[in-house]
Design a protein that fits this description.
heterodimer, A: 158 residues, mainly beta, five-stranded antiparallel beta sheet, four-stranded antiparallel beta sheet, 11 strands, B: 159 residues, Jelly Rolls
Chain lengths: 158, 159
Amino acid sequence: MPVISGGVIPAAGELVCEEMYFLQAANNTGGTYTAAVTVPADSWLIDIIVYGQALWNSATSATLKIGDASTTDGYFTAVDLLANDLLADETLSFDNPGGKEGAYIVTATGLRNKMWAATERVITGVVTEATTTVVATGKTRVLVVYSTTSNAGSAVFA
Amino acid sequence: MPIIGGGNAPGPGEVICEEVLFAGQDSAAGGTYQGSVTVPPNSWLLDIKVYGQALWTSVTSAVLKVGDAVDDDGWYVGINAKATDLLVGEVLSMDSPGGKPGAYNVTATALRKTQWSSLERVVNGVITEVTTAGAVAGRTRMLVIYTSTSEPVPAEFAP
């Protein structure tokens, strides 16, 4: 039935995803790799999945954190990309953070924070590397899954 | 703004799903039911859900496994579709595999495997049934959720 004017007709939204890719740079003396995904206002953050495509071979360390402007490691903290925390072909996610969850992921209670926001959010991933080798091998991928902006209709009050 | 040529302008990808229905057939000797979903290269496998729509009435057994070409029960193994493991209205998923995870879903460490790949993958479900009853009721559904192909730009490196 057509709507002549006015009225809020909320339609089904979509789940979308964007990916960050951390590729180790060869023959450097250390530094940071930064990538970000902007999640629009009035949308739901569904999941952030981290995939170890290939182990990093930095001489000293390579550590990943993921967060937002409020807490830079709110979702995942201190993920060792050299070994242990995320081996090749393994993944971390909100449901399975592998012990590397940040403050937003409260595994003890099962209650998560920051899954919805009225404002735009920038999800930022940072790998901090301390010295590397001549031939770099590290590859880590991060997928951010979120909903499109929602104009939810208000529940009926009786 | 249109892009005339060149450049990499990655935008949001899509989350896609495809479903396979395993519907029991009246065959006294039994056999296998096979259904698959092809996940494209450079994409993420987000979940595989298995839903028990109707219990199987096979006389002896009806067992489901889900995997790929490398490990044919890598995602789920030994699901009794007749009873116990997946009753009517119940669902298994990667997060809640109901004690039936395969080797890719390492619940002890909470670290999963093969969720991303540069290669095309065929997620394959197989129900092996041994002898059926006259009245066939079994129905099991499998939903595969994955992302569209992604070619992200590498993160910016700052020495």
